[in-house]
Amino acid sequence: MKRNRLGRRGGLPRDAEQLLWLANGLADSSSRAEDHFWDQRLADAVDGLLSAEDEDALTTALDHLGSATTSVHAYDELADMIESRAEGALKSDAQHDVLLIAAPVMAWSRYRIPAAPIAAAVMANLRVHLKAHVLASGVKLALADFLFSPDQLPQGYCATADFATHLGKAAEGDGDLHIKTDNLPETAQFLSDNRYLLGAVMVPKGAPIFRWQEEDCSRDQALEQWRAQGGACVAPLLTGCAFEVVLPNAYFAASREADKTSRPYSIQASVAFLSTTLDAPAAGLRAVVAPFFERQVEEFRIGFTLRNQNEVVHGVVWPLLGAEDESSETLGQIEATLRACGITDILVLDNEFPMEYCDDCGAPMYPSPEGEAVHAELPEEQAEQMPKHLH
């Protein structure tokens, strides 16, 4: 998941101060023996805050380290510890490791991308192929019987730990977890978006969790097999959608990889959509790329027009993740992705656009060839068939 790149300053509560001291101690450690000292105490402190559902102390400490340029290593240590303890489930069984996992799917459609309960037969197939191609032998697995949208994922570290705990208990019996859908948030509809299959695994302490931890398999081989076999299992869940699976992994790592991979995928989906909807080949489109700022560059936005026209008919957001900034290779990646899709007319603007959104529908504003931030509008006859938000 995206980590904050800039935080807030201010007075710190005692629990947050304790986290800072422990994280800085671990970051400055000079030996494995000292690492163990700091690591164990930091883990205990984080576990206590997760159990107490004190989200504020966790995020306050992260924000403080994120805003201090001298504490980059300490920030990474604290973020990694919080994530690992949250996805490791709050259970006291010293004989087993429990891990929350995610199997992301990138999808696009002219219609609604489903987020819905998963039928028992599909659950059974997913379980078989996850155990065969992604997970190590002997792993106990619990799956949640729902395909989640990003809006429906656990919100925050404490909620993630609680969800992992419930799934972990189901994994003890190698069973699945039924998800009550009454209180799940509504799903915003986009042309392209991610969906998530969530599960928890249980293994004896120190045993391999994933196939690539075994000598006869690598991550690339596991992904190839999951694409071939797992993709067929996912297909009934995404009727009317084009989709691509992401390698299942630990929850936060898989979510970050999905965030990263979905950026070029959303451009590919947009070009395919515009080519069919407007009956225009990729070479007949133009892309306008510009950075959008708050206190720093937060994202690049790409406005699409028909070649030699100025009306923006569609847009894509390319958010900056982790340590990326405007001086990174992001712009080159965007241009390379556009060219790989067949777009050769690319206009890059130097304007510093503010993070503007439509007052009526909340959609991002996109750069036009004339150097203005505008609303993306499909021609009226095509717009009637599409979700409200196109980015």
UniProtKB/TrEMBL annotation:
InterPro entries: DUF2863 (IPR021292). This is DUF2863 family protein. It comes from Zoogloea dura.
